[in-house]
Amino acid sequence: MNITRFLILGYVVGIPLGVVALYDIARLKRRAFRISGHHKMRWLGWTIAGLISGWGAVLVGTLWVLGNARHDAIDVLEKQRRA
Questions:
Q1: Any stretches that span the bilayer, and where are they (predicted)?
Q2: CA 20 to 30 Å from 74, out of 22, 28, 54, 67?
Q3: pTM of the complete model
Q4: Is the distance from CB of 77 to CB of 32 less than 8 angstroms?
């Protein structure tokens, strides 16, 4: 596989995943990030930078979906709803 196809594949996979991650991050409240110890603006910045590079969006999107920051922020929101 040559480098051009590799880069195109990164954009084909990365852009949709990056957009989904960006939407998911944006819909969560900043307060949930603050309470959970993570930074919303940092995640937004990483996702936008990842969208520029294609494969970076794949990496950031995967880390967002599988990482602790998303789950911690959602847990904070769930606890606030129950209280």
A1: 6-23, 43-66
A2: 54
A3: 0.79
A4: yes
